[in-house]
Every structure is written in structure tokens, then in C-alpha cells.
Amino acid sequence: MRRTISLIIISLLILSGCSLPTQSGSINEYGEWVPDRAIEIVAPAGAGGGWDTTARMLARTIEEEGLADESFGVVNKPGGGGAVAWSYIYKRQDPHNIFVSSPLLQFVYLNGQSPYGYEDFTPIANLIADYGAFAVHADAKWDTLDELFADMRENPESVTVAGTSSPGSMDHMQFMVFADKAGVDITKIRYISDQEGGGITSVLNGSVDVVSTGVMDAADQARAGKMKILGITAPNRIEGDEFLSTLPTAIEQGIDAEFVIWRGMFGPPNMTEEQLAYYEDIFKNVSESKAFAEIRERFGWDELYMGSEEFKAFLDEQSKELESILIELGFIEK
């Protein structure tokens, strides 16, 4: 009878997509959590993207710098804009499985595209930051964000904005945050989603006025003199590169806003203090290492380490602002 019941339970777990309970490591004589097998860093997308690159650079740094006794391997789980990976982590509830993410974890939940948001996991640490940029054709009449937003305050529909992300997601929302702070009626702004990455091309051929994108995505065309970057979403100018350091922030142009495209690590829900401390220590050492500093410089990433508590507070604040904008735009109800 017991064997029959056990088989029924196993079958139900398989059918429901859940995993059987797994070992969770042990606590050593010093009160520290010790993994009992290799750590799996999940990249919620295919090879080659930002999540994948971040995960692999972290794993490589940990290995080359000897920052952990167990190995850290990268597993790609693409699908659903990250939702497949988040479901995998949530259902396994195994502290040996962690994942890298970005603001998309907030957007898809707020937009109702996934049942999982950052609050369903344990924020471990943020490692790096990217920033957005608002760019126009080199011959455009605007030279500053203030000039652009002044026209948009008069007639929001007179300017067409393009981005790679879908409406209600990254490129769209970062522009709306700044336009809203500048006093523009954001409900009337025309945003075009070009998910094939043609936003910059559309600006260059004159079919749209502004592209909302990443700093590094616009930098090459701006260096070549084909585009002007009116402003970036960083709190301060980007140091370490002669050209990037010339790009003005919105803050210095009188627009009290910033938008951080963070990239950090999360674990399953209900991690213990000891498990969390294990990972925080490793990722803090990664962030402070010379090897990872060189990686940041190579990829144009900014250093932005936050431990678990600070990271959680940051996510709470950013999500509150994003939710307010999404409500105003009608993507979610009050």
C-alpha cells in the first residue's frame, strides 16, 4: 500500500511540473552553509544575450579567482521572456539553483505576463548596471533633452519614439519615466516597438524621431557622427571612456530622474540566512576583484554592487515607480 501511495505522489509531482525535494547542503562547525554539489546559475534566455553573458562572466570569475570550493556552471533556460526559468527556480526551491535577472523580472510581472515577480524569489546581490540613452539623428533640431521635452509638452504626439522592447517594457518605460518627470502627457506619446532592433535604423532613415535604447547601442552611431545622444539615464556621467564621459545625464539637464538597468542574482524563495550569506560573500568578492573590473570595462558595464537587503529596498522603490507609470498608461488597473 505504501509503495502504491508513493508512486501516486511521484506521478502527481511529475504531472504538476514540481520536483522532488532535493538536499540543501549542510551547516559546518562555523555555522556556515556548505553546498553539497555544483551550483547552477540559470540564464533565463538563450546563449549570447545579456543574461547569458553576465552569468558566464560571473562563473568564469568565480572559477579563475578561486572564490568557491564548488563549481558554478551556467544553464540556459529560454522561453517566455524569462518566465520558463523563473518557474523552474520557483518549483525546485533548491539553494543550489540561482539565476541572473534584470528589470524584465519586474515588467513581466507588473504587466501580468508571468505569475512570478522579484518578490517571489530571494534577492542575493546586484552586480552591475547598464543605462539607457535617448538619441536622435545628427541633423535633428534638438540638442538637449530639455529642448525635446519642451516640444513634447506642447504637442506630445508630434514626436515618435522607437525602441526594441514591447510597449510597457524596458525601452518604452525608461523613456516614459523621464518624459513624465519632464511634465509631458505620457498618455499621448507615440511609441513604436521594433523588436527586430531597427529603432536606431529608423532614426537614421528619418522614419522616427527618437530612439530609446541602451547607451552602448547608440554609442557607435554617435561616435561616427550619425546620431546625437541627448541624454542618458545614469545618475552620473559614465567614466572610463573619453566619449561616454561627454554624454550628459538627464539629472544635470534639470530632469530629476534616473533609470538603472540593473543585473543581479536571485535565489529561490525562503533561503536561509546561512545560504544567503554564502552567496553574498562570493558575489561581493567577485565585484571587488580586478578580474571582474576588467570584464566590466570590456562590456561597458558600471559597477553597482548591492547586498541582499539594499538590493531588495532598491527593487521595492523602482517597482513602485514603474507600477505608477504603468497605471497611468493603462497597462494595469489601479
Question: What's the helix and strand layout?
Answer:
Layout: H1 2-16, E1 26-27, E2 33-34, E3 39-43, H2 50-64, E4 72-76, H3 83-92, E5 97-101, H4 104-110, E6 122-137, H5 145-154, E7 160-163, H6 170-181, E8 190-193, H7 199-204, E9 210-214, H8 215-223, E10 227-232, E11 260-267, H9 273-288, H10 290-299, E12 302-306, H11 308-329
Parallel strand pairs: 3-4, 3-5, 7-8, 7-9
Antiparallel strand pairs: 1-2, 5-11, 6-9, 6-10, 6-11, 6-12
Helix pairs in contact: 6-11
Fold and architecture overview:
By secondary structure, the protein is an alpha/beta fold. It folds into two domains: 38-129 and 262-329, Bordetella uptake gene, domain 1 (D-Maltodextrin-Binding Protein, domain 2), CATH 3.40.190; 130-260, D-Maltodextrin-Binding Protein, domain 2 (3-Layer(aba) Sandwich). The chain contains eleven helices and twelve strands. The strands form two sheets. Strands 3, 4, 5, 6, 7, 8, 9, 10, 11 and 12 form a ten-stranded mixed β-sheet that branches. A two-stranded antiparallel sheet has the order 1-2. Helix 2 links the parallel strand 3 (39-43) and strand 4. Residues 1-23 have low confidence and may be disordered.
Reported CATH architecture of the largest domain = 3-Layer(aba) Sandwich
Could you give me the name of the CATH homologous superfamily of the largest domain? Bordetella uptake gene, domain 1
> How much strand?
15-25%
* CATH fold-level label of the largest domain: D-Maltodextrin-Binding Protein, domain 2
First and last CA, distance:
52 Å
Large-scale geometry? globular
- As for the number of domains, it is 2
